[in-house]
């Protein structure tokens, strides 16, 4: 008898689950979409399980993201694992990244690189080729005005200072080996005593 009772209980559960699915489908059709309305299910007397409530929340979040951004989460993604708002933001960033740049749209750093002058036309042309700057005729033929002359002088001064600092550091590392670990010249004099 126990086996027959267990079989009967399983059949009852299966029928109850099928009935709930039919009621959920009817409620979804009544609300006019795939978004499950938990309040409508409760009002109809259907027992709402945590899975049904979670599915309703996920569907509501997806509908909200679709309404705000116009980007829907593809069906091959697990709706419980993907946040539709973050997915929409990521898709927008991806579209912005892969769309072509408009004419005349240069960044500030690109303008700085184009204005850079090494003082020699050949070096300027070589640098622009290496950097991939295509407007070589505009920048290559530019005359040395006061601003570029000032930046050239500043660059030379910076390079001179760096070179002097390098030489000073190199001479200290070669001439003062063993110093700095508590051993000074006064300590060496005490070794002989």
The shape is elongated
Structural class: mainly alpha
> What about the largest sheet?
none
Question: What is the element string, with H for helices and E for strands?
Answer: HHHHHHHHH
If helices are DSSP runs of H or I spanning 4 or more residues, what is the number of helices? 9
Task: Bin the strand percentage.
Answer: under 5%
Detail the poorly predicted runs: none
Number of strands: 0
Please bin the fraction of helical residues: 55-70%
What is the CA–CA distance across the termini?
108 Å
Mean pLDDT: 76
Round the Cα radius of gyration to an integer and report it: 37 Å
Describe the structure.
The structure is a single chain. This protein has 193 residues and is mainly α. 68% of the residues lie in helices and 0% in strands. α3 packs parallel to α4. The termini are far apart.
Features:
193 residues, mainly alpha, 9 helices, elongated
Short description:
This protein is mainly α and 193 residues long. Among the domains are: 57-90, no CATH class; 108-134 and 146-174, no CATH class. It contains 9 helices and no strands.
Structural topology:
Layout: H1 2-31, H2 38-43, H3 50-69, H4 84-98, H5 108-115, H6 121-131, H7 136-140, H8 146-175, H9 185-191
Helix pairs in contact: 3-4
InterPro entries: SMAP_dom
Domain Small acidic protein-like: 113-182
Pfam family, one: SMAP
């Amino acid at each position: 008898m126990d086996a027959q009772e267990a079989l009967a209980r399983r059949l009852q559960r299966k029928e109850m689950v099928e009935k709930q699915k039919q009621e959920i489908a009817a409620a979804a059709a009544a609300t006019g979409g795939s978004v499950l309305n938990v309040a409508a299910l409760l009002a109809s007397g259907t027992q709402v399980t945590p899975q049904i409530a979670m599915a309703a929340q996920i569907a509501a979040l997806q509908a909200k993201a679709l309404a705000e951004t116009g980007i829907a989460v593809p069906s091959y993604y697990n709706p419980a694992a993907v946040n539709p708002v973050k997915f929409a933001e990521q898709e927008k960033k991806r579209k912005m990244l892969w769309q072509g740049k408009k004419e005349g749209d240069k960044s500030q750093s690109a303008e700085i690189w184009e204005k850079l002058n090494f003082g020699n036309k050949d070096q300027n042309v070589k640098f622009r080729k290496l950097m991939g700057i295509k407007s070589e005729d505009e920048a290559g033929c530019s005359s040395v005005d006061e601003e570029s002359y000032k930046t050239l002088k500043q660059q030379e001064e910076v390079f001179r200072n760096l070179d002097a600092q390098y030489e000073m550091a190199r001479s200290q590392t070669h001439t003062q080996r063993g110093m700095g670990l508590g051993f000074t010249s006064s300590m060496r004099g005490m070794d002989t005593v």
